[in-house]
UniProtKB/TrEMBL annotation:
Gene3D superfamilies: MFS general substrate transporter like domains. Belongs to the organo anion transporter (TC 2.A.60) family. The chain crosses the membrane at residues 27-46, 53-72, 122-148, 160-186, 206-229, 274-295, 315-338, 350-370, 465-484. The keyword Cytoplasm does not apply. Residues 1-584 form the Major facilitator superfamily (MFS) profile domain. The keyword Protein transport does not apply. It comes from Strongylocentrotus purpuratus (Purple sea urchin). One of its GO terms (biological process) is sodium-independent organic anion transport. GO terms for molecular function: sodium-independent organic anion transmembrane transporter activity. This is Solute carrier organic anion transporter family member.
Amino acid sequence: MIVNGFTPGSITSIERRFRLSSQSTGILVSVFDFTNIIFVLFTVYVGGRGHKIRWVGVGCVLIGLSGILYALPHFTSPPYSYVDATGGGNSSSSGACDRNGTRVGDTCDSPGGASTSGLSNYIYLLCAAQVVAGIGSLPLYTLGLTAMDESVSNKSYGPYFGTFFACVILGPGFGLILSGSFLNIFTEISIPEGVTLSTSDPGWVGAWWLGFLIVGSIILLMIIPLSLFPREFPTTAKIRAEKANQAHANSGTEETTRAGFGERPSDLWRALRYLFTNPTFVFTCLGGVTDALLVNSFNAFLPKVFENQFSLSAGFSTILTGILAIFGGVFGSLTAGFVLKRLKLDIRGLLKLIAAANFLTGVILLIFLWHCPQQQLAGVTVSYVDTTNLGTGTNTNLTSTCNSNCSCAVEQFLPVCAGDKNYFTPCHAGCETDHGNGTYSNCACLQPGSIQTVDSGLCRTSCSYQPYVFAVVAALYVFFTFFARIPDLNVILRCVPDSQRSMALGVDSMLSRGLGAVPGPILLGAVIDQACLLWQDVCGTRGSCWIYDNANLAWRLTVIAVSLKAAACCMYLLAMCFYKPTVKEDSELNEVAGKETRGATFE
């Protein structure tokens, strides 16, 4: 589970290292869930009748191998070289403007330039690692949950499931924190001599690969203890017999529990037909689809949102995301488990609880409107001549009369600050003198009468407490998201016959991933790209985004998030309205649900 936190934590570094757009890394994230869709039915259909825990062990081996495969591009790609502000195209090695210089160094046609032209192709190797991880994760989240459900009573399932999902978020949360720590280490471990680079520089790439390699190697060993578990615990048969049947009426209980069902291939389609004519199951799955659209896409890019909307380093953004994920997710899962144990809700009560949690989450997501002031970049957001706002729809032009004969390169973003205005590089500020300590002077692009020196790095914005307010409220979003997941899972398991529980989990996983988790990161990545103000340009090829329009991105994220939560809330309310309990229920359940009205069915 820790490995699952490394991918979102490394998104920005992977984009910079391999010159990828957010839509491309969105595809990378989605490959994991797309793989789940392809293999989920086979896993639950075959593994559900086998040794479930041993299947989980095999999955751990695959997850470990995927971590090692994920780190492979670091060792097979050329060393990361952070080019000076001149991009190798200016006679001044310091990055200052040399009006009498000539362009030297690597060009697009030279061996140095050609060696890195195919960096974006490494996304295929990263996608292959995601495929292996996707296959390996399936047994844990389907067969592992079914084995747990078969081993605990209805009165005790709440804390067990709450603890499981607490671990589901605790693992990726710690993964994010570890990833953030590794991102504070330079990707090549040691910074080349003569290069001055810090974690706050836009071109910094941390050791994104290190966590995958270390944790992946450790996970390989999990096959040993998991292979020692029995096929069933001694109390499993007794617990299964004592559990009440709360399946939706006309859901094929008699057919799917008959002797020999599941031995013929045609039984698979019959089992699927019973599931898809169960309206409570269908609408609950659709609620999960809309939730997966939101959760998977926002979780993948949340560190990036912190980094760009609040001017934080990649490492600190990832650590902050991991902390809020741990506190919000763990407490949300554990709280839901104990609430369900205390309230002993039937299916209709569970669906009301889920809808209420989704409504509160939708209100909380308005926090995405919160962001820091936009960084002012000459030629992009403000004019070179004065402080006139250029607007977001204006074509950018980093060249002005004050730097037109400096032959400034644009391959790397090395900003310098003058007052509250940033320049793309010291060369673009027209600075001719480098003082060797990150300070430049004799800058032709600075306004007369203003400070005539610039300092390396982006200007500081008035953004001291905003990221922490956002983090606290975002933790509430995570809390209610995982709080709702526990009753959602129990509705899926309890509204179908016992014999179809593994299949129900598999179908739910297939739908939520296929219609939600797979397209979600791709679509959100495209939305984030639309808010980009300045793209990296490497030999005429677009790379990663250097700077985003904060206000534009905030509105886009908020509209998408709130709309999806509203849709999810509607789906769970429909599931509640259509639910029709079976005639035969145990006496305890009848006291709670016996007076409920009958709803319609799809048949």
